[in-house]
């Protein structure tokens, strides 16, 4: 069983000042509205309704946190999350690029997303969700370029690959790798960018994405090794505000 299946709702925030005080690694999922971000999160965590997919794309305006560890699997469980046993956080960022969202909301999201991906120390990596038929839109590229200067990994998931034939899949994957390889730092070194094809419908790339995400946030390390490290260096994890609220699905 994948450790990602342990995911459960932790908190939701709409301002950077309300981000949880936990210091465990976070991996954030970003993408255009309708790119399949919520679907990808739900299938990777094996939970149908963990990430909320609104019928109106772009309506979800909050950053939603899901904890890994510290509780039994499943949203229906009523037992409390033991904060000291949380090993990582999955972070669902607001979808971007939906035309009917008001101008003020767009500006708020832009600042919220930009500040979060550039400044959040706990953020270990970014998962950029893109429709395989329309990858690297202007907003996807903006997100990529916001995050690249941090030097942290980006894993691109090209969703809805079942809509493409084999030749189209091979071509889009090759082209995506070319785009990512074109980004280099001031020393001419490439960034830690990776990419894969994915389809929730045909279950393409699920194991690959699962393994990569666990690797990026250290879930591939056995808990015994973590305990040894803690015993040697002390446990510095902090508890968040106990007043974590339920997600706003309105």
Automatic annotation (TrEMBL):
Q: Which cofactor does it need?
A: Mg(2+)
Record has Cell cycle as a keyword = yes
Q: Does the keyword rRNA processing apply?
A: no
* Annotated ranges, domain EngB-type G: 23-219
**Task performed by this protein:** Necessary for normal cell division and for the maintenance of normal septation.
The Swiss-Prot or TrEMBL record describes its family as follows:
Belongs to the TRAFAC class TrmE-Era-EngA-EngB-Septin-like GTPase superfamily. EngB GTPase family.
By what name is this protein known? Probable GTP-binding protein EngB
């Amino acid at each position: 069983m994948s450790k990602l299946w342990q995911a459960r709702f932790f908190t939701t925030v709409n301002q950077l000042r309300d981000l949880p005080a936990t210091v465990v690694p976070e991996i954030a999922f970003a993408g255009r509205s309708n790119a399949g971000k919520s679907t990808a999160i739900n299938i990777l965590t094996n939970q149908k309704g963990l990430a909320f997919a609104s019928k109106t794309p772009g309506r979800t305006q909050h950053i939603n946190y899901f904890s890994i560890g510290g509780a039994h699997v499943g949203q229906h469980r009523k037992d409390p999350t033991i904060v000291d046993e949380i090993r990582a956080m999955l972070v669902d960022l607001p979808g971007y690029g939906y035309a009917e969202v008001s101008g003020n909301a767009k500006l708020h999201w832009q600042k919220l997303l930009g500040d979060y991906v550039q400044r959040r120390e706990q953020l270990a990596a970014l998962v950029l969700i893109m429709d395989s038929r329309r990858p690297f839109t202007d907003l996807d590229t903006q997100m990529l370029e916001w995050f690249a200067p941090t030097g942290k990994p980006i894993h691109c998931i090209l969703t809805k690959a079942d809509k493409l034939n084999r030749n189209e899949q091979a071509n889009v994957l090759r082209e995506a790798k070319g785009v990512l390889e074109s980004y280099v730092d001031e020393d001419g070194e490439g960034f830690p960018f990776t990419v894969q094809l994915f389809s929730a419908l045909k279950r393409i790339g699920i194991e690959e994405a699962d393994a990569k995400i666990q690797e990026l946030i250290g879930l591939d390390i056995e808990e015994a090794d973590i305990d040894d490290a803690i015993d040697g260096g002390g446990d510095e994890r902090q508890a968040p505000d106990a007043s974590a609220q339920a997600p706003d699905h309105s």
